[in-house]
Write a structure and sequence with these properties.
By secondary structure, the chain is α/β, with parallel strands linked by helices. It has ten helices and 13 strands. 46% of the residues are buried.
Length: 300
C-alpha cells in the first residue's frame, strides 16, 4: 500500500509515518523540510499551489492519502479567517482535484471542535456539527469538501498529545518538573488522544475501508481515546504519575484567559462505527498518557 501523508512534520505525521512504513511505501508531505530524520520519503509542497500539488501526487501515485495538514491554532484561525479557510478547505480541494480518477482513498483528519459543546455528553458520528469558532467552521467545511469525493472518509479526533511538537501534555510536564504552577481549564472536557494510538487506529481504519469499500458504509468516524476528562483533571493525572504535588495544578475557567476563539465546553467523542469497522477502539486516555510519559522517559 502506497500512502501519502500531508502535514507529515506535525504532531500526528511522524507517528503515522512510523506506523505505515511497515505496510508499504510512505511519502510525507509538508510545507517545510523536516528538522530531523523521517520514516520513508519526504516531499516539500505547499498544497495551496494546485499545480505543484498535482505534480507531487502524480509522482507518488498513492493508494491512500491521509490529510493531516491543518491550521490547528484555534486563536490564529480566529484572527486570520482567510488563512484558516485556505489551509483547512482549499488545500484539501487541491488534493482531491489532483486525485480525480485515481481511485485513491482519502482520509480527512478533523476535530471535535466541529461541535458546539452543549450536548454535555460524548458526541458520536450521528450528532449534528455546530461549530462556534473559525477553526471549527473551517474544519467542517473541509469535511464537506472531502465527503463530496467518491472515495473518502472523515476521522474526527480530540486533543492530541505525543512526541514531535510541543503540546498541552508537554507544557504540563515542563512546568511540574520545574516545580512551577500549572493553570488548566476546569470547564473544558475533551477526549485526550495519544498520537501513536491515533496513528495505529488510522492505519487499521485505512486498510479496512480501502479493502472493503462500500458506498453505503459509514463515511465519518470518531477515533479518540476512550473516556473523557477536563483539562485540569488531565493536568492532575500528569502530576499524580510524575509524583508532583497536585497543589501545583490550578483550575481556571476558560473565560479568565479571554482568548480570541471560543472553545466547546464539552467535546468528548465516542463512536458507533469504529469498533465494528476496525475491530476495536482506542485504549482509555489515562492508560495512553502513562504510556506516553514512559516513552519520553518521564516515568519509570
Amino acid at each position: 500500500m502506497k500512502t501519502l501523508i500531508t502535514g507529515s512534520t506535525g504532531l500526528l505525521g511522524p507517528s503515522l509515518s512510523r506506523r505505515l512504513v511497515a505496510l508499504g511505501e510512505v511519502t510525507g508531505l509538508s510545507r517545510r523540510a523536516p528538522s530531523g530524520s523521517v520514516s520513508g520519503r519526504h516531499v516539500v509542497c505547499d498544497l495551496l499551489d494546485a499545480r505543484r500539488t498535482a505534480e507531487v501526487i502524480r509522482d507518488c501515485r498513492p493508494d491512500v492519502v491521509i490529510h493531516a495538514q491543518a491550521l490547528s491554532d484555534v486563536d490564529q484561525c480566529e484572527r486570520e479567517p482567510a488563512l484558516a479557510d485556505a489551509l483547512n478547505v482549499t488545500a484539501i480541494r487541491h488534493v482531491l482535484r489532483a486525485l480525480e480518477g485515481t481511485g485513491a482513498l482519502v482520509v480527512y483528519v478533523s476535530t471535535d471542535y466541529v461541535f458546539d459543546g452543549t450536548k454535555a455528553a460524548p458526541y458520536d458520528e450521528r450528532d449534528e456539527p455546530r461549530p462556534i469558532s473559525v477553526y471549527g467552521r473551517s474544519k467542517l467545511a473541509g469535511e464537506r469538501v472531502a465527503l463530496a469525493a467518491p472515495r473518502s472518509i472523515v476521522v474526527r479526533t480530540s486533543t492530541l498529545f505525543g512526541s514531535g511538537r510541543m503540546n498541552f501534555c508537554d507544557h504540563i510536564v515542563g512546568r511540574l518538573t520545574a516545580g512551577e504552577p500549572v493553570e488548566a481549564f476546569a470547564d473544558q472536557v475533551t477526549s485526550p488522544t495519544y498520537s501513536e494510538d491515533l496513528a495505529d487506529g488510522l492505519a487499521r481504519l485505512s486498510e479496512t475501508v480501502r479493502d472493503s469499500w462500500s458506498e453505503q458504509g459509514p463515511r465519518v468516524f470518531h477515533v479518540a481515546s476512550a473516556g473523557s476528562c477536563s483539562r485540569v483533571e488531565f493536568a492532575r493525572r500528569v502530576a499524580d504519575l510524575l509524583g508532583a504535588p497536585r497543589t501545583l495544578v490550578c483550575g481556571i475557567p476558560m473565560a479568565q484567559q479571554r482568548r480570541p476563539a471560543l472553545r466547546p465546553a464539552y467535546s468528548a467523542l465516542t463512536t458507533v462505527h469504529v469498533k465494528q469497522t476496525m475491530g476495536r477502539m482506542l485504549r482509555p486516555w489515562d492508560e495512553a498518557l502513562a504510556a506516553y510519559l514512559r516513552q519520553r522517559r518521564w516515568l519509570g
